[in-house]
Specification:
Blueprint: E1 5-8, H1 12-23, E2 28-31, E3 43-46, E4 49-52, H2 63-73, E5 77-81, E6 84-88, E7 91-94, H3 99-106, H4 108-124, H5 137-145, H6 147-162, H7 172-177, H8 183-192, E8 205-209, H9 214-226, E9 230-232, E10 237-241, E11 250-254, E12 259-262, E13 264-267, H10 271-277, H11 284-292, E14 295-305, E15 315-318, E16 327-330, H12 336-339, E17 345-353, H13 364-377, E18 386-399, H14 405-417, E19 422-424, H15 436-451, H16 465-468
Parallel strand pairs: 1-2, 1-13, 2-9, 6-15, 13-19
Antiparallel strand pairs: 3-4, 5-8, 6-7, 10-11, 11-12, 14-17, 14-18, 15-16, 16-17
Helix pairs in contact: 1-9, 1-15, 2-15, 3-4, 4-5, 5-6, 10-11, 11-14
The protein binds flavin-adenine dinucleotide.
Flavin-adenine dinucleotide binds at residues 8-14, 31-34, 39-41, 53-58, 236-237, 268-269, 298, 394, 397, 426-429, 434-437, 439.
């Protein structure tokens, strides 16, 4: 008889695991705390339009991930020509950075300043690789771009996002997100690379489902149900007890204290909550490590604007120091089918916060007021054009890679690895700064470990993000 599988969480990781296992003949039970599937990658209906939870660009160079995506959305996608810029000192800078555009925006004096500071960094940092292995994000970027460019294009945004100094942020974050990028690379790629119109890379364009990114997961849900799986919405799991009984089964515990036994459990719930729920099974050292892992929360403030042409980007990074928001998404510039021919445009301003930050406890009315003031301050929108606002708070969505996190995570991994019937995957599930594609891959590999007796190390999954962007855009299923 096939094993009984429980999956905690119906985001991209949990649903993919459920989908693959269902296809292989397993009967899965997926327990989801919220009232719909998709996790952080869901699409919601707002003011008769469709919007994602912040910008959600899907991209991957991994054929295994792309194949699952195309199997699910088939031809129901559009290709979006990417446009994203940085807003700094009333100028817009292309992102990824382009030297001539940066030079123009910064002015001659500031540009000379940047070049001198870059040269100084090259002279003073002779042997970066051999320095302290606990190098910070700031060291990493300054070594590649110089101090001044770091201050302009990396510091403000990163510190808004992570809530800690870039000196305390592990260079892992940079290595995963801006790998292989340096000032030389930026200059080389913009001057030497031949731009072919037919040949699109993941930097130039991306695939976007016609009904928003959440369409992938709504369809996955339907396929799982058709294959005989169960998805229980509004069902938050309180605890996991992976101690094996005589039948090699583990139990999950619901909030009404009822229990169910399963042969295998795949968890995508926050790793901190999972370990804490395991109570006395965790050693003091593991609990100490769990308490040292920190997450950052996101506040999304959606604003409806009575205008069509506000700015052409899918999103803007806001580096200005005098604005609290860090990113503004414009949902009109993704695909027309989510805007539904409406005259109004929906923008989303992002704010980041810790659990104890004042802004996290702020009322929705005050947050809408703040976002309205800030969008007017950018000069992009007139006060009279603002119609209404809506707030969505997402807890624990950024695992903070502060210096030392790897040692803490390693203690936790050792503890969790001792339970062979439990796999932890996903963004907050495995404390990985995942995009959708990474969580999909984790779900796929967790399913293969169970169904095909594979031995994929799920902790080691690669997240070298920006590096992948140099690849070509895949437009259909690969054989
Ligand atoms: C603002 C923002 C912008 C982003 N932009 C992009 C982008 O451009 N491109 C991209 O690819 N990715 C992007 N991401 C990342 C993407 O959203 C995530 O990587 C992806 O959703 C992670 O999937 P997951 O399944 O690992 O986790 P989640 O999506 O978080 O799903 C976990 C699920 O578990 C459920 N859950 C939690 N606890 C319990 C419990 N105790 N019991 C039952 N269920 C529980 C949750 O409700 C949730 O549905 C962005 C994320 C954010 C927040």
């Amino acid at each position: 008889m096939k094993k009984k599988i429980a999956i905690i969480g119906a985001g991209p990781a949990g649903l993919t695991a459920g989908y693959i296992l269902s296809k292989k003949g397993y009967k899965v039970d997926i327990f989801e705390a919220s009232s719909s599937v998709g996790g952080m990658s869901k699409t919601i209906e707002l003011w008769d339009q469709l919007v994602d939870l912040g910008p959600h660009r899907f991209f991957s160079q991994d054929p295994r991930v792309n194949n699952i995506m195309f199997e699910i959305i088939e031809k129901d996608y559009d290709i979006v020509n990417r446009m994203t810029r940085i807003y700094y000192k009333n100028h817009f800078f292309n992102y990824p950075l382009k030297p001539l555009n940066a030079l123009k925006g910064l002015g001659l004096l500031e540009s000379i300043n940047c070049i001198i500071s870059f040269l100084i960094s090259k002279i003073s940092i002779k042997n970066f690789q051999n320095r302290n292995s606990k190098s910070s994000f700031q060291d990493w970027v300054e070594e590649r771009f110089g101090k001044r460019l770091f201050e302009i294009f990396f510091k403000t945004y990163s510190e808004k996002l992570w809530g800690i100094s870039c000196k305390d942020l592990d260079s892992d974050f940079a290595a995963q997100r801006i790998k292989k990028l340096s000032l030389f690379e930026v200059i080389k790629s913009s001057f030497l690379k031949k731009q072919s119109k037919k040949h699109k890379t993941l930097v130039d364009a991306f695939i976007y489902p016609k009904l928003g990114t959440g369409m992938i997961y709504e369809r996955m849900k339907n396929k799982i149900l058709k294959l005989g799986g169960n998805i229980y919405l509004n069902t938050r799991i309180k605890a996991v007890n992976p101690k094996l009984d005589q039948k090699n089964q583990s139990e999950i515990i619901f909030f009404d204290d009822t229990k169910q036994l399963f042969d295998k459990i795949i968890s995508t719930m926050p790793i901190t909550n999972l370990v804490k729920s395991m109570g006395k099974l965790a050693t003091e050292k593991t609990m100490e490590s769990i308490n040292n892992l920190k997450f950052r929360n996101t506040i999304l403030v959606y604003i409806e604007i009575k205008e069509k042409n506000i700015f052409p980007d899918q999103w803007l990074y806001i580096h200005a120091n005098d604005l609290k928001t860090g990113r503004i998404t414009n949902f009109r510039n993704w695909t027309p089918s989510i805007n539904k021919n409406k005259e109004e445009t929906i923008l989303c301003l992002e704010y980041w916060a810790n659990d104890d930050s004042e802004i996290w406890r702020e009322t929705n009315e005050k947050l809408i007021l703040l976002a309205s003031k800030e969008i007017v301050k950018t000069g992009l929108v007139k006060k009279e054009s603002i119609k209404r606002g809506f707030v969505k708070k997402i807890p624990k969505c950024y695992p903070v890679y502060s210096i030392g996190y790897k040692e803490e995570l390693s203690n936790i991994k050792n503890f969790l690895n001792s339970f062979e019937n439990l796999s932890v995957i996903g963004r907050y599930g495995a404390f990985k700064y995942n995009n959708q594609d990474h969580s999909i891959l984790m779900g796929l590999l967790a399913a293969e470990n169970i169904a095909d007796n594979k031995n994929h190390n799920l902790w080691d999954l690669n997240t070298d993000y920006e590096y992948q962007e140099s690849g070509d855009l895949q437009l259909e299923k690969a054989d």
